[in-house]
């Protein structure tokens, strides 16, 4: 712990620091609450997306055997042309949000390809989008949790270290200055009494 100076200048510095800590702490506490709430909301949204993801995957299992058709290579139609996201700001933290996924229009011979191909392409594209939404949601939650850890550490630092330390320093400096003033008054009285005694003694002679 750094040593403090027992001076009026140091007293002012400690008081100013205390005011700054007390002013900044509520902002940190509010940010912590916002992050906690957003994490809960994002977890709920993630669960909804995962349920939709599982439901969609379960639906395609029933006709997955059709994918063995040698004429069909679904991967050709599932490569996205563009994935568009935007940052969502939560309490000063940006998390990624999916806007849309763009695919190229399917280009195949309708007479050669099976009738179910259009449905399959659409279903797997929906699964791809859900997978991307789930991945981004998990990434966003990880970002929010990291920021929450940092914010919680700062709140604890201010509540348990900075503010109590500044208060204790102020108390010690005030005691020291008070003692010094009392000692100064005492010395002044002693000096005054000695002067009076010397004057009185001189007059008596």
How are the SSEs ordered, and which strands pair?
Layout: H1 8-61, H2 75-78, E1 80-90, E2 93-103, H3 117-204
Antiparallel strand pairs: 1-2
Features:
two-stranded antiparallel ribbon, about 70% helix, rod-shaped, mainly alpha, about 10% strand
| CATH class identity | Mainly Alpha
Biggest sheet architecture: 2 strands, antiparallel
CATH topology: the name is: Helix Hairpins
Number of domains: 1
* Rounded Rg: 36 Å
Name the CATH architecture.
Orthogonal Bundle
What is the string of SSEs from the N terminus onward? HHEEH
Our measurement of the CA-to-CA distance between the termini, rounded to an integer number of angstroms, reads: 60 Å
Explain the overall architecture:
- By secondary structure, this protein is mainly alpha-helical.
- It has a single domain, classed as Orthogonal Bundle (Helix Hairpins).
- The protein is built from three helices and two strands; from the N terminus they run H-H-E-E-H.
- It has a two-stranded antiparallel ribbon with strand order 1-2.
- A hairpin with a 2-residue loop joins strand 1 and strand 2.
- It is rod-shaped and about 130 Å long.
- The two termini are 60 Å apart.
């Amino acid at each position: 712990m750094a040593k403090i100076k027992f001076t009026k200048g140091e007293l002012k510095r400690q008081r100013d620091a205390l005011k700054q800590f007390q002013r900044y702490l509520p902002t940190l506490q509010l940010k912590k609450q916002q992050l906690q709430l957003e994490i809960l909301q994002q977890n709920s949204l993630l669960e909804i997306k995962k349920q939709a993801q599982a439901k969609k995957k379960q639906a395609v299992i029933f006709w997955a055997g059709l994918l063995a058709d040698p004429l069909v290579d679904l991967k050709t139609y599932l490569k996205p042309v563009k994935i568009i996201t935007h940052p969502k700001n939560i309490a000063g933290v940006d998390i990624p949000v999916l806007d849309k996924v763009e695919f190229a229009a399917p280009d195949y011979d309708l007479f050669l390809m099976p009738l179910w191909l259009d449905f399959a392409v659409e279903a797997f594209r929906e699964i791809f989008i859900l997978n991307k939404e789930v991945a981004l949601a998990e990434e966003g939650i990880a970002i929010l949790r990291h920021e929450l850890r940092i914010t919680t550490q700062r709140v604890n630092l201010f509540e348990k270290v900075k503010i109590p330390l500044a208060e204790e320093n102020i108390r010690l400096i005030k005691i020291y200055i008070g003692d010094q003033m009392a000692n100064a008054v005492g010395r002044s009285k002693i000096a005054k009494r000695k002067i009076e005694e010397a004057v009185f003694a001189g007059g008596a002679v």
